[in-house]
């Protein structure tokens, strides 16, 4: 070691200190070489070079770590994005929508305007999927997504909730602006969508809920959904703004479902029977079974206020089964007390869903046999709208019924907008003209011509015609003049409890 006399070379301390700093991670620490150019200087230069190298390696390493971390973050963001977007349309999914609503609610506490949520459900998507296939369905969904994005501002969220349901979150807007956006969205969807060579429509029912400050995110989406269902109930293709009384309707509805569940087992259901007559003579040729619900608290409830609920909740299957069994059993009971009455027929109304009941054909056959009722004495009434949208299963069941000898009647004819070409292939024997068509035939000559044309159309399609809702003798005379042979309506008799039917059939009605 170099020393001058007893004095230690101060560079040695510098060197030790420099090495300590380097060891402590101060990689930019450098030592000044002296003028002497001796061994110590050589070591100092060597250590400096080592430090240089270390600093380079270290910064290179840091850069690599930073790059990798950025890549990881990017992948994580992409994964999150994938988990939060709908792969078909690229829109936000339900999870992201929930987050955006939360964010919008949080932000709204600053600027005071609570966000609004719109829920949209396409009106005829199932039909598109069923008739043109899922590929066509996807084309429509992608097009709808595009139109929705065009209808809102870039900061608003457009999401697909699943299936054919979409949602929008609109922020910082007034009620008027929100309703305008809803209207614009609805208009965007009025234009047809081209799917290959086919043209389809993607109109939708839209529910709007304008939030209030402090409202939780879940209720905002739920209320928009309730408003959307209201839009469906109002005939589809329209916009409804949520009102609190819509919640009451939902509660009422669930109460009805709960009560209806007990109605069959509790013996609260009954059938009333309305005469079907030959117009000229007034002779009863049959009766239509019409369901009545004797509710323990609400009294007698008419089918229009519960059949659709039974249909939506699936309870219609059990109810329909009961109606079929009870109606056919009643024919046998009448027959037992009036053996001569072997000809009149029983009309029973069937809901769309019942045609999909797998055991319907078998149930009809066995029940008729059990009560010794000939199949020709049963007429099953099915609404025109159902026949228009029938699929292969329904087709199969209808032809099965007709093969068995049961008559199929189109109910409410003239309300389902049958296409004329379609009419010829309807799987039915008779058509019952809806009462709304004949309401004004006595006073409105135009309506007379229209009904006459409808009757001709039915006959040209090879079907027999019957008219419902005849309320006075003038209507009856008018219809007979047009060549209509059969009908039903309050003029000929209101729906009656079973005990009063035989007297009516025998013509013991005081009016006759
Ligand atoms: P619908 O099959 O078209 O039955 C005719 C409806 O018109 C009945 O109403 C009947 O009481 C009423 N009506 C009969 N004559 C006249 C008239 O001259 N003027 C007026 N204004 N109305 C008349 P109701 O009994 O309330 O039944 C309503 C609907 O409920 C029925 O229409 C049918 O679609 C459905 N329905 C009834 N019973 C059943 C059933 O057992 N199963 C199913 N799935 N649906 C049923
Ligand atoms: Mg009917
Ligand atoms: Mg009808």
Description:
With 512 residues, the protein is an alpha/beta fold. It folds into three domains: 68 residues; 149 residues, Alpha-Beta Plaits; 246 residues, Alpha-Beta Barrel (TIM Barrel), CATH 3.20.20.450. It is built from 18 helices and 18 strands. The chain has an eight-stranded mixed β-barrel with strand order 10-11-13-14-15-16-17-18, surrounded by five helices. Strands 4-5-3-8-9 form a five-stranded mixed beta sheet. Helix 4 runs antiparallel to helix 5, helix 10 runs parallel beside helix 11 and helix 11 packs parallel to helix 13. It is elongated, with a radius of gyration of 39 Å. It starts with a strand and ends in a 7-residue tail after the last helix. Bound molecules: ligand C2E and magnesium ion (2 copies). The site of one magnesium ion has 4 residues, from loops. One magnesium ion (MG) binds next to strand 15.
């Amino acid at each position: 070691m170099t020393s001058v006399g007893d004095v230690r070379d101060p560079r040695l301390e510098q060197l030790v200190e420099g090495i300590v700093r380097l060891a402590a991670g101060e990689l930019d620490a450098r030592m000044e070489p002296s003028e002497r150019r001796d061994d110590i200087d050589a070591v100092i230069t060597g250590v400096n070079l080592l430090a240089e190298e270390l600093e380079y390696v270290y910064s290179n390493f840091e850069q690599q770590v930073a790059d990798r971390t950025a890549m990881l973050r990017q992948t994580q963001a992409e994964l999150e994005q994938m988990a939060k977007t709908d792969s078909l349309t690229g829109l936000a999914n339900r999870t992201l929508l929930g987050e955006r609503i939360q964010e919008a609610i949080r932000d709204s506490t600053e600027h005071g305007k609570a966000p609004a949520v719109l829920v949209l459900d396409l009106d005829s998507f199932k039909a598109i999927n069923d008739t043109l296939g899922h590929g066509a369905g996807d084309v429509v969904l992608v097009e709808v997504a595009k139109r929705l994005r065009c209808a809102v501002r870039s900061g608003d969220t457009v999401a697909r909730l699943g299936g054919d349901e979409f949602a929008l979150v609109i922020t910082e807007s007034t009620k008027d602006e929100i309703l305008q956006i809803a209207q614009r969205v609805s208009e965007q969807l009025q234009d047809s969508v081209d799917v290959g060579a086919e043209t389809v429509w993607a109109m939708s029912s839209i529910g709007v809920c304008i939030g209030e400050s402090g409202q939780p995110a879940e209720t905002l989406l739920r209320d928009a959904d309730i408003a959307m269902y209201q839009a469906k109930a109002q005939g589809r293709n329209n916009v409804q703004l949520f009102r609190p009384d819509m919640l009451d309707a939902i509660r009422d509805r669930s109460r009805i479902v709960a009560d209806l569940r007990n109605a069959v087992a509790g013996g609260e259901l009954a059938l009333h029977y309305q005469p079907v007559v030959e117009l000229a003579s007034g002779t009863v040729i049959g009766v239509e079974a019409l369901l009545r619900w004797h509710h323990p608290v609400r009294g007698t409830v008419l089918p229009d206020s519960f059949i659709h609920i039974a249909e939506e909740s699936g309870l219609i299957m059990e109810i329909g089964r009961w109606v079929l069994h009870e109606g056919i059993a009643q024919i046998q009971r009448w027959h037992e007390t009036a053996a001569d009455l072997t000809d009149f027929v029983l009309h029973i109304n069937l809901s769309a869903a019942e045609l999909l009941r797998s055991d319907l054909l078998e149930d009809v056959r066995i029940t008729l046999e059990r009560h010794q009722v000939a199949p020709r004495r049963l007429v099953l009434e099915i609404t025109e709208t159902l026949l228009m949208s029938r699929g292969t299963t329904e087709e199969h069941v209808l032809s099965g019924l007709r093969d068995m000898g049961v008559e199929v009647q189109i109910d409410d004819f003239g309300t389902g907008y049958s296409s004329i070409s379609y009419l010829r292939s309807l799987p039915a024997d008779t058509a019952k003209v809806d009462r709304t068509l004949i309401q004004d035939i006595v006073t409105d000559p135009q309506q007379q011509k229209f009904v006459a044309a409808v009757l001709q159309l039915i006959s040209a399609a090879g079907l027999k015609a019957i008219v419902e809702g005849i309320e006075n003798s003038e209507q009856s005379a008018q219809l007979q003049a047009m060549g209509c042979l059969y009908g039903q309506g309050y003029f000929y008799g209101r729906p009656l409890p079973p005990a009063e039917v035989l007297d009516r059939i025998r013509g013991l009605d005081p009016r006759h």
